Amino acid sequence: MQIEVLQAKIHNVRITQTELNYTGSITIDMDLVDAAGLIPNQKVLIVNNNNGERFETYIIAGDRGTGIIGLNGAAARKGQVGDELIIMTFAIMTKDEAMAHQPKNIFPDRNNRLV
């Protein structure tokens, strides 16, 4: 049996920019991507704590140390600058693997920087 479990979470980051005229995705500071053990182009589930929106997209590499969290394309309609997001990824594992798995949870500061 295979089950889907939380792989990693970047908790309570803030949107720093939106760009509607883009092909889509979320731009994330690569310091956060690396800390969470993620990779560019990986699928993510986004929860907007301010408006309740939930949507899926993929990661675009953002400049390191900038704290950038940018919603691009259609995703730009799902939030506005300053909104708090939770960014999650999931992995498919066997039950035994899932029982031993510990998700990587990242809690950046108010400026989307590692603490």
What does this entry look like structurally?
- The protein is mainly beta.
- It is 10% helix and 47% strand.
- It is built from two helices and eight strands, in the order βββαββββαβ.
- The chain has helices at residues 30-35, 95-100, and strands at residues 2-14, 17-19, 25-29, 43-48, 54-62, 69-72, 84-94, 104-106.
- The chain has an eight-stranded mixed β-sheet.
- A hairpin with a 5-residue loop joins β4 (43-48) and β5.
- The model has no long low-confidence stretch (mean pLDDT 97).
Report the strand count. 8
Beta-strand percentage range: over 45%
Question: Which strands sit side by side, in order, in the main sheet?
Answer: 2-6-3-5-4-7-1-8
Structural class by secondary-structure content = mainly beta
Count of domains: 1
Our count of helices gives 2
Mean pLDDT: 97
CATH class membership: Mainly Beta
**What separation lies between the terminal Cα atoms?**
38 Å
Q: Give me the strand/helix succession.
A: EEEHEEEEHE
Radius of gyration: 14 Å
In the CATH hierarchy, what is the architecture at level 2?
A: Beta Barrel
CATH topology: Barwin-like endoglucanases
Helicity, in percent?
Answer: 10-25%
Major beta sheet summary: 8 strands, mixed
List the helices and strands and how they pair.
Elements: E1 2-14, E2 17-19, E3 25-29, H1 30-35, E4 43-48, E5 54-62, E6 69-72, E7 84-94, H2 95-100, E8 104-106
Parallel strand pairs: 1-8, 2-6, 3-5
Antiparallel strand pairs: 1-7, 3-6, 4-5, 4-7
